Queue: 2 jobs
Job 1
Amino acid sequence: MVEEKGKYYERMVREFDQQAARVAAFPEHLPADKEEHQKELFDYFETLGNFHQNANLLLEEHLPLMKIPPTVTVTNPRQQ
């Protein structure tokens, strides 16, 4: 019984040490992860902006053909 608990304890210590090493190494990856995440966010918002601009152009083109008046006129603040 004591021998089993000793083996169990040793295994738990090994697992703890492995996890502690992973946690200790984690901050080393943060700068690279942060830079990659920032690139992904910029790409996402650029794509989202392009989507909305294209949707706006399509609506401007097709709503009059469907005889649906635009309810809201939105202007780009950068173009003012």
Job 2
Amino acid sequence: MTEKSTISELKPLLIQKVSVQNKGLKLETNEPHHQKTVSNEKTGTVYGAIANLTNACMGAGILALPYAVSQIGWLFGIIIFILVGLISWGSLQLLMLCSFYTKQYTYEELARYVIGKKMYVLVKITILTITILASTTYLIIIGDSIPKFFESFEKTSDTVLTSRVFISLIAVSFGILPLSLMRKMDHLKFSSSLSFIAISYMVVVIIINHSETNIKNLKTYAFNFDFIQFLTAFPIFIFADSVHIISVNVIKDLKNASEKSISKISIITLTSCNAVYLLASLFGFFTFGDKTPGDIIVGYRKQGISIIIARFVLTIMAIVSIPIFIFVTRESINVLFFKNKPFSWKRHILLTVAFCMIITTLSLTLPEVQFISALTGSTASIITVFIGPGFLWYHLERNKKRKKHQILGLVYIIFGLAVMFISTTAVIYGHTIKKKKQ
């Protein structure tokens, strides 16, 4: 059974479900009332959707991926890239098409519509966990990069410009907060493009600064397999491709949405992201070998102009990425608590400020990027990439009484639960051992 044939079979079922529930009536989309009162016009483009999804997908994960590759070897790392990429694409395609057919524009509403209220609370908690931890990771990046940037020009590191707290507050107040106050996610497409350029530049810097010595020893670094190391590295790959919760939201503003445009969005997004991931991971690993740090940019000790600029553009990437997660969180809260209430700028601003305060506090207290990426990947990301689509697939096929297709959904669920339990245990265990050695 191919992915395409399965999706095609799901379409009639979804349309039938909508038509039965709305027979003889005008189809309601279950969109929050406040969205209808503000504007019903869809202005989003395929380019804007790809830009936003690529930006959301390709961010903090790219910094920890070289470390993940160092734990398993470059050849095995390529295999894992391909495997995780294919699985992520399949579930991403399924989720976006289900959202398109059912007119459900948040991950939670889609889960409630297809599965019912049983999974609604779990999905809601999962999404909040991902958005908060992902945003926190980006803010940690800002706190790590900007002080290093100013240290390049200062003779001492004991200044306000190298203070993590001061830099985080400035970035949130004058960068993240203003961007997050926009009403539509599609308005971020230009800043998202800027983020993609920033990432591309950073990859070029990593390639330029690679070590030829390590490349000459490719056979030595091909496999570095250790079971515990593999279990702690695997979630980082999943976290890097975890864009599923945001994929549903971009369809809401998409003008002239169709199966073709949705397929184009999912393919281009994950292909471009994984291509960049692969280059950054391999050359980053070739630079540091088995001593690759959890945050690749922190490993560069020399203060060359290319490294200085890389830290600056990395900060830009983080600043324009966080608002996308704030959009998703704010929309979820509006759907959950204020679904039938008109749009309110007061509520809009308060929710945004509250989220910014939470991630700022967490970024100043939680450990390094690598640990958060692994922990998020082994818990919340696995739920949205494996377990969630598995439940969705299983329940849709159960209505059609197709047992073979139900089994495929169960495989997703069982695999996700097993990976989540084992990887989470390994990540926490590995982090504990690392702290004891320090």
